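Q: Give me the 3D complex with calcium ion.
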Amino acid sequence: MFNNVTSDDDESGGKGFDEEWKWVTENVTGGIAIKLAGSARGHHLSGERTMIEAWQHRLIASEAAPLFARSEMDQTWQRAMFAKNLPMSFYWGALTGLQNGQSVWDITSGALESSKEMGFDYSFYFFNRYAGQIDPRTATDAFCALHKGLDAADTKTYPEAKFGKASHKNTERMEKIIAPFAKYGAAVDDKNGLTLGQVRQRDTQTGFNDVGWDIWPDNYGRFLYQIDADATSIPLWRVGGPITNKSPIYSRFARGFEHATGKDTLYFKLHEGFSQGAEAKVMTMTVVWYDATAGSTWKLDYDAGKPSMKTALTVTGKGDKQWHHETVTVTDAVLRQGGAKGSDFALLNTDAADDIFSLIEVHRGKLESPALLPPTDFKVFDKAPKPPKADKPTKEKKKK
Ligand SMILES: [Ca+2]
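A: Here is the predicted complex, encoded as structure tokens.
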């Protein structure tokens, strides 16, 4: 275990332990363990993009010496932002940890004891299903959780000439970035949180923000990737309206069709190594979608090694405004990226009414046990969240 031994490139201001990191990577060939400080303690925390970009490629599908990463959940889960919706916070925190490549998530005994009655134990099962899947050739499962984060530190996507100077304190720039996405549900619950580092965010932020500083911009996933996401689908936030402590976990982020602008298909491909050989394979796919409109139709197609893709599933909406899991097993999946745009799977709109999706999972073979579903009925936090640790009066205030 080499806590804090990181290269200068991976630390802000180049203040890593470069010499030590070089020694460790050259000499410790049997396996290296590191700590990803703060990983999985929330989502849209400042700095998460830099951490993911530094570590994910070393932890997942890497040909180098095996690397292993842990992080623990502290009391963050009892603070205001997390407690806004516990199952939702744990779920998207777990996805952020998985995106980092985090291998082990140590949970405090208090959180473990509360997890069943408060409905967030599902996130631990989800994390465990994927955390050990680091080699695409032997991985049993792949997933893509649809998400867009508006990263104000990204000057390529949001040029300074149009949106203003890229600085962590420039909330005007962040508001300009989020404005065009307000129609898709993007919002800022706590403006002050936009300017904070992740330690202060976890302690004091009171709600969810969809724009942030150095936050993860794309889908979360393992070995399953969406192709041309922004050109073929729209991002969605807070599906079904403002987030409450009872909102389903999936309502936080999604993507969907926008028939009016010709965005009618979500294309996905597996990691190159996941599906090998041209023979027919048994695969099980699960799609989590939001049933917004009665009569609206969509379908799931897959690459069966034929000139055109084959349909695995067709669905017609009832309009019950609920999230549903659709699971289908096929026996003739080839999945060599032979579909449109080099895809293995596609979610297609088959009428003019738009549909919304949050998660697609692929399991090698048949399901050994029924799909584990997040609880729809759980106990909500009945006491006020813990007050921030940092909000003790400062010396400055005491003088007044
Ligand atoms: Ca439709």
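A quick observation: Residues 8-134 form one domain.
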